[in-house]
Design a protein that fits this description.
Number of strands: 0
Distance between the termini: 69 Å
Largest sheet: none
Helix content: 55-70%
């Protein structure tokens, strides 16, 4: 039986794609990805890719940062554990990154690019920001 990934050289694409990933999670997702065999699904993904290229052309490169470790820290907090000061700083950086990507996507909405409306799925965790500012002002 022919190996479809090798025939399409998808393994080479994944190798290059993997070098661009900012997190271990993204690298695993890329490694586990397979070619689309459904034309409908492929056309949907092509539309998203075209829109992503259009946003980059209109708004510049997105403000992406590595969020390595964030998932594990959030899971620890959900279990009732505390974060150390370095982890808290990284969480704050992640919140700023979400705010920046939301602003970036809002710019894309001005061009009526449907992909830009994904910002509605991003939560800036305003209640955490407010609690932080309240705690620092109480000092």
């Amino acid at each position: 039986m022919i190996d479809t990934e090798k025939a399409l050289e998808f393994d080479k694409v994944k190798e290059i794609w993997g070098t661009l990933a900012l997190t271990e999670w993204a690298k695993r997702e890329i490694k586990n990805s397979t070619p689309y065999l459904s034309e409908t699904e492929l056309l949907k993904k092509l539309k998203e890719t075209t829109e992503a290229r259009l946003i980059i052309e209109k708004c510049g490169n997105p403000p992406l940062v590595s969020l390595n470790g964030i998932t594990e820290w959030v899971e620890n907090v959900e279990k009732g554990n505390c974060l150390n000061p370095l982890q808290l700083e990284e969480i704050e950086k992640a919140m700023v990154a979400v705010m920046r990507i939301k602003n970036y996507l809002n710019k894309g909405q001005a061009y009526q690019i449907s992909l830009a409306y994904y910002d509605e799925n991003l939560d800036e965790l305003d209640e955490i920001k407010e609690a932080r500012w309240k705690a620092s002002s109480d000092r």
